Amino acid sequence: MIALAGLDLTDRLVVCVGAGRVAERRIERLRAAGARVRIVAPEATERLAALASAGDIEWLARPFDAGDLDDAWFCHTATGSASVDALVVDAAETRRVWCVNAGHGGKGTARLAAETTSGDVMVGVVSTAGADPRRSVAVRDAIASRLAEGALPLRRRRRTPVGGVALVGGGPGPVDLLTVRARALLAEADVVVHDRLGPTGVLAELGDDVELIDVGKRPQHHPVPQDEINALIVDRAARGLRVVRLKGGDPFVYGRGGEEVIACRAAGIPVEVVPGISSAIAVPSAAGVPVTHRGVAGTLHVVNGQETPSEATLAALRDDTATVVALMGVSALPRFVAAARAAGAPESRPVAFVENGHTPAQRTIRTTLGTAIQDAETHRLANPAVLVFGEVARADLLMPVPAMAGEGAG
């Protein structure tokens, strides 16, 4: 009868007999679990030899001796010799040390589970009807896929004295552009504090008992002041709850994530930052506008479009090899364009406005600096929109260059 157990191997000796490719993979797992690893083998792979030279593992470069197990908590044998593996298993049994026989799983006293981890939850799969690693891996992979989708219940049922806050970058909006880590944290969340923009579609997938708090700005709904948001996430975490602060884009790109990190740290609340795809890159990309392109633009300048352009921004607007991306800049577009033109940016500079990026309502307006204001008015440009200034905004940039007549003939 097989019992699945979670062993704490931290700073405990694990003896690995054999130091080939199979052992190398297993030793990586054991080291990740915090074990002190001793290998016993006349020869070792280059990777294991390097670890031994660095002092990360112990290597006894000789054949196995039963006394090698005297201080061991766990054992793994993968020598390639059935008789030697059997000898190791017998020696371990005598010393009451659990032993994995990699060459014949059914003849060992333990098996390593096929593992997957999501946050602080580890799932292990073993077969109870004889060793069947391919089957265990297939089941493990299916569970891992569901965990990555945030489809399995990972919320803690027991509160801790102090919870935690995760500032999660949700990317430009589509749920399938959320990172695996973002999905896992949402599946664990007790409270989700969210904005208007970002992957709000994922909220419908959360449990009915997850507290959803909307702090975003939209018509007839004024945004919650930042200091109140800070107090809110700290308050919920101080109650032992897991809080996800879900933002569009990236928390540290005009997301005021830094202020929230400071508030959490000041209150002694554990805080994690999960990056997301910034709209400064993702939205132009959705419209076929690369913010850098070899031989065209090698510098990217991201600005808050509501602010008066700085000297650095104006210099970038004049630079033929720079791209300027302005976020939140629709209302201040006339002032922004006027400042650029007054600073000497060419009237012919290509410009692209990408409205409602990564949504069914996405629209791209191609223009130039000289006609940008007129075209924005004609097409009734509205938020949310990302404004791109630079040669990368040319409509023909990514079109293949036609071959010259007769090229390739021979």
UniProtKB/TrEMBL annotation:
<dbReference type="GO" id="GO:0004851">
    <property type="term" value="F:uroporphyrin-III C-methyltransferase activity"/>
</dbReference>
<keyword id="KW-0808">Transferase</keyword>
<dbReference type="InterPro" id="IPR006366">
    <property type="entry name" value="CobA/CysG_C"/>
</dbReference>
<keyword id="KW-0627">Porphyrin biosynthesis</keyword>
<dbReference type="InterPro" id="IPR000878">
    <property type="entry name" value="4pyrrol_Mease"/>
</dbReference>
<dbReference type="GO" id="GO:0051266">
    <property type="term" value="F:sirohydrochlorin ferrochelatase activity"/>
</dbReference>
<dbReference type="GO" id="GO:0043115">
    <property type="term" value="F:precorrin-2 dehydrogenase activity"/>
</dbReference>
<dbReference type="Pfam" id="PF13241">
    <property type="entry name" value="NAD_binding_7"/>
</dbReference>
<dbReference type="InterPro" id="IPR012409">
    <property type="entry name" value="Sirohaem_synth"/>
</dbReference>
<dbReference type="InterPro" id="IPR035996">
    <property type="entry name" value="4pyrrol_Methylase_sf"/>
</dbReference>
<feature type="active site" description="Proton acceptor">
    <location>
        <position position="195"/>
    </location>
</feature>
<dbReference type="InterPro" id="IPR050161">
    <property type="entry name" value="Siro_Cobalamin_biosynth"/>
</dbReference>
<dbReference type="GO" id="GO:0051287">
    <property type="term" value="F:NAD binding"/>
</dbReference>
<dbReference type="Pfam" id="PF00590">
    <property type="entry name" value="TP_methylase"/>
</dbReference>
<protein>
    <recommendedName>
        <fullName>uroporphyrinogen-III C-methyltransferase</fullName>
        <ecNumber>2.1.1.107</ecNumber>
    </recommendedName>
</protein>
<keyword id="KW-0949">S-adenosyl-L-methionine</keyword>
<keyword id="KW-0456">Lyase</keyword>
<dbReference type="GO" id="GO:0019354">
    <property type="term" value="P:siroheme biosynthetic process"/>
</dbReference>
<dbReference type="InterPro" id="IPR036291">
    <property type="entry name" value="NAD(P)-bd_dom_sf"/>
</dbReference>
<dbReference type="GO" id="GO:0009236">
    <property type="term" value="P:cobalamin biosynthetic process"/>
</dbReference>
<keyword id="KW-0560">Oxidoreductase</keyword>
<feature type="active site" description="Proton donor">
    <location>
        <position position="217"/>
    </location>
</feature>
<keyword id="KW-0489">Methyltransferase</keyword>
<feature type="domain" description="Tetrapyrrole methylase">
    <location>
        <begin position="165"/>
        <end position="371"/>
    </location>
</feature>
<dbReference type="GO" id="GO:0032259">
    <property type="term" value="P:methylation"/>
</dbReference>
<dbReference type="InterPro" id="IPR014777">
    <property type="entry name" value="4pyrrole_Mease_sub1"/>
</dbReference>
<dbReference type="InterPro" id="IPR014776">
    <property type="entry name" value="4pyrrole_Mease_sub2"/>
</dbReference>
